[in-house]
Design brief:
Blueprint: E1 12-16, H1 21-32, E2 37-41, H2 45-55, E3 59-61, H3 69-80, E4 88-91, H4 106-126, H5 128-134, E5 141-146, H6 160-180, E6 185-192, H7 201-205, H8 207-211, H9 222-233, E7 244-247
Parallel strand pairs: 1-2, 1-4, 2-3, 4-5, 5-6, 6-7
Helix pairs in contact: 1-9, 3-4, 4-6
């Protein structure tokens, strides 16, 4: 049946930044769609453990800071003690930084680029073998990068490194997808708009005001993000390679005028 195409039954997934916000939405959705296990990671161990306990026994907490190569290597080694094959990797861990142009610091550049752009590349590289071991011609493994509509269009905020990192991630997704599909790994990306989260405090705290500037007239719901990720991670999305799907209520591509 067609609905079976959206099942994640028996799949093993990894969601970085999975303890809160968009990562938690995706992790919960994967579990509800049938994943056998969802590993979540986060820099804050207590929060990661708490979310795993909330989501249930099939959610496993492996807290780790992924902003450095040492952290990526440590996380990979810990994960591969548990699994030899990974069906789905969601590169969601991210950071933002805002400062006026003349005052924008190098630390705000390096922190954001390292976590938002460097980490997805090198974590995927580190897990390449486990992903390739899971993927087949008929059912590829999946890597989903969480970009942003700020990588598609400008917003008025002084978030220079964030804009650059997310635009870079969208094009990196295309380049990596062209390489990885040969190993039966399909890479795609999601570009979220306004979702209530600790990173997007404006959407969280001023949702009604933000909604008035969105063509769909609301901010994103948890199920909007979960369902987009389930589509790409499931057999329903097997023939989608290298694409970035905007999940934003029409802000990036449907807004008319300035």
């Amino acid at each position: 049946m067609i609905l079976d195409m959206f099942s994640l039954k028996d799949r093993v997934a990894v969601v970085t930044g999975g303890s809160r916000g968009i990562g938690k939405m995706i992790a919960r959705g994967f579990l509800e769609a049938g994943c056998a296990k969802v590993y979540i990671t986060s820099r804050k161990a207590a929060q990661c453990d708490e979310t795993a306990a909330e989501l249930g026994e099939r959610c496993i907490s492996l807290p780790q800071d992924l902003s450095t190569m040492e952290g990526i290597k440590t996380f990979t080694a810990r994960l591969l003690e548990h699994e030899t094959k990974i069906d789905i990797l969601v590169n969601n861990a991210g950071a933002a930084w805002g400062a006026e142009f003349d005052e924008f610091p190098e630390s705000g550049w390096d922190k954001v680029l390292n976590l938002n752009l460097k980490s997805p590349f090198f974590l995927t590289q580190a897990l390449h073998g486990a992903l390739a071991a899971a993927g087949t011609h008929e059912r590829p493994a999946k890597v989903i990068n969480i970009a942003s509509i700020d990588g598609i269009r400008l917003n008025p905020q002084d978030t220079y490194s964030y804009h650059a990192s997310k635009a870079g991630l969208i094009y990196l997704t295309r380049r990596m997808a062209a390489r990885l599909i040969a190993d039966h790994i399909a890479m795609t990306a999601i570009a979220p708009g306004a979702f209530a989260s600790d990173m997007n405090r404006v959407a969280r705290d001023q949702g009604d005001e933000v909604a008035r500037r969105i063509p769909s007239r609301r901010i994103g719901r948890d199920e909007d993000m979960a369902c987009a990720a389930i589509y790409l991670a499931s057999p329903a999305g097997d023939y989608v390679v290298g694409e970035t799907i905007a999940v934003d209520g029409g802000v990036a591509l449907a807004t008319v005028g300035a």
